Amino acid sequence: MTAHIRKRKYKSGVRYQVVLDKGNDSNGKRRREYISCDSYAEAQAIKAEKLHQFNMGSFIEASKITVQNICEQWFKLHVEQELAITTQNGYRVNLENHVYPAIGNIKVQKLTPVQLQMFYDDLKKKGLSPRSIRYIHTTLHTALKFAMRMGVVGRNVTEFVSPPKGEKFKPDIYNEAEVLELLNCCKGTQFEVPITLAVGMGMRKGEVFGLQWKDIDFSDNTLHVCHNLTCVKGKKIIGKPKTESSDRKILMPDYLVTMLKKHKIEQAKNRLKLGRAYQDNDLVYCYDDGTPRSTNGFSKRFSDFLEKNGLRHIRFHDLRHINATLMLQYGVPAKIASERLGHSTIQTTMNIYSHVTVEMQKDTVNIFDNNIFSKVAEG
Q: Which CATH class is domain 61-167?
């Protein structure tokens, strides 16, 4: 088999086409396969992968490619190359735990909307939430969109199936009194740093665990969120944040600055005490010997901490929602709140926290009633 790349010009722009020449069939007819790509770099990667598969004897004819085959190709050529580790991990869990066992062996060209709908119905019967099933649907939709570009299928069957709808997301958050009680309870414990960073800065769990001292500038009290720690099959990996917009530099409240300076001093004492046994990874939140903490199991430990202190159960990620809600309730402009949270657009912030904006609208009405309309002379 040989392969080459063609450049195609369209009104909408330039695209590239990988042409796989498979020789002649038994009737002497030329056999070719065409794969459309958005960029030359993508075309080069696909061409190299196809030739490698052919040379290694692992090349599969389009008609024989299974759902698992195409998902693995998509994962290797797209997910691993372009997406953050946390996103990769989420896709991998969906594929290995749900997709492959149920429909992985089905030929992708023969996958029908009915089979896919039955797959979603079975997931629902097993107790998966509508939100989790929609995430699996998104995973499959993206993988099969890749299959269309590769010329393996002529349609994306996920477009003919509707995953279950769930209630609009509304985060479970503490009121101001509960937040104060939480912050007081965590003082001097192993949870003080992560809880204060999540409540005060709106940081995600992986961002807290991946935070390094070099990311903090005490000269201007800024914190640069540019690392994310995730655990993949027991291995701790520090990589980039969840999205490009998640990489952000934000100002710290004075309370947080003081807490971090104190924490740094305590950490330095541990370093001196342990000497060579201390593993300096420059991490802000780590074990006493400097090694990275594991995100696995942290949710259970956080839940136990809340129960021990008589606090209402919430998820650790809800602390980020608390930060966002308080910012909007205190009148912080949506643009600033969005930037501090690392959202790609203001609309993302407003969609997630629409429950807050409803209350803000009520407050706005009261402002007009109390300050304007109440002073209008009666007819």
A: mainly alpha
